[in-house]
Design brief:
CATH superfamily of the largest domain: PDZ domain
Distance between the termini: 30 Å
Largest sheet: 3 strands, antiparallel
CATH topology of the largest domain: Pdz3 Domain
Number of helices: 4
Number of domains: 2
Length: 149
């Protein structure tokens, strides 16, 4: 008789499975808490991407669109201050308070255009629109793993 067991016949250590499930649940709880917290984040009306760099407008929302900002505009300065990094953009030169105004010096078709945009709050629906899909897909992915496992 062969006393060796194949990999599929070995018992699963339930403690490791439980610890993995607790870790996954903790990560999802943290992400859900952040989604709730992000609703109070400032909304400047536009976004950039790492691919285009911190000065090129990659996405425009209603607030900035109404003010005249366009996709692919190059922002040369905000409130009269130039910047080169995402750190400067996100944490140093913009006014984050709701109701404050940021004035953008934008290079468009070889000319500098001044555009003023009032800072708002993102709100829960925008956060869910931007991050909710990824959250739900992650939950479904983990659920499939649990069902298959």
């Amino acid at each position: 008789m062969n006393s060796k067991k194949s990999l599929f016949e070995l018992p699963i250590n339930r403690v490791w499975v439980l610890l993995a499930m607790i870790a996954i649940a903790g990560i999802f709880a943290l992400y859900a808490a952040n989604i709730i917290r992000w609703r109070n984040s400032p909304d400047f009306g536009w976004r950039t991407t790492y691919e285009s760099g911190p000065n090129v407008v990659a996405q425009v929302f209603d607030r900035a669109k109404t003010a005249g900002l366009r996709i692919n505009d190059t922002i040369v300065a905000i409130n009269g201050k130039t910047y080169k990094t995402f750190d400067e953009l996100y944490f140093k030169i913009r006014n984050n308070e709701p109701g404050s105004v940021n004035t953008y010096s934008v290079l468009r078709e070889g000319k500098i255009v001044e555009i003023s945009i009032v800072t708002g709050r993102i709100g829960i629906w925008s956060v869910l629109n931007r991050s909710g899909t990824i959250f739900v897909i992650g939950l479904l992915y983990v659920a499939m793993g649990v069902i298959v496992f």
